[in-house]
Design brief:
Blueprint: H1 2-39, H2 42-74
């Protein structure tokens, strides 16, 4: 009975070791990805792009409202 426990413990240990090695192997590319993502300044560039798009929307909105005003003024019966 003691030998059965010993074999199941060693079996469990080998499974656990293989699981940790697989997790370690799988974790390495993820760490490399986040390191490269950080080193490439991706968040800084995405923030700059978002700011540029937001500031570009205001003149576009003003132009659309002006065009809409000209179109509505040309329609007879509207004030």
């Amino acid at each position: 009975m003691a030998s059965e426990t010993h074999t199941s413990d060693s079996s469990l240990k080998s499974k656990t070791t293989s699981l940790f090695s697989a997790a370690k192997k799988d974790g390495k590319p993820l760490q490399q990805f986040f390191r490269k993502f950080s080193n490439d300044w991706a968040m800084t560039f995405s923030g700059a792009l978002a700011y540029s798009l937001l500031t570009a929307m205001l003149p576009i909105a003003i132009a659309l409202v002006a065009i809409l005003g000209f179109v509505l003024a040309a329609i007879p019966g509207t004030t």
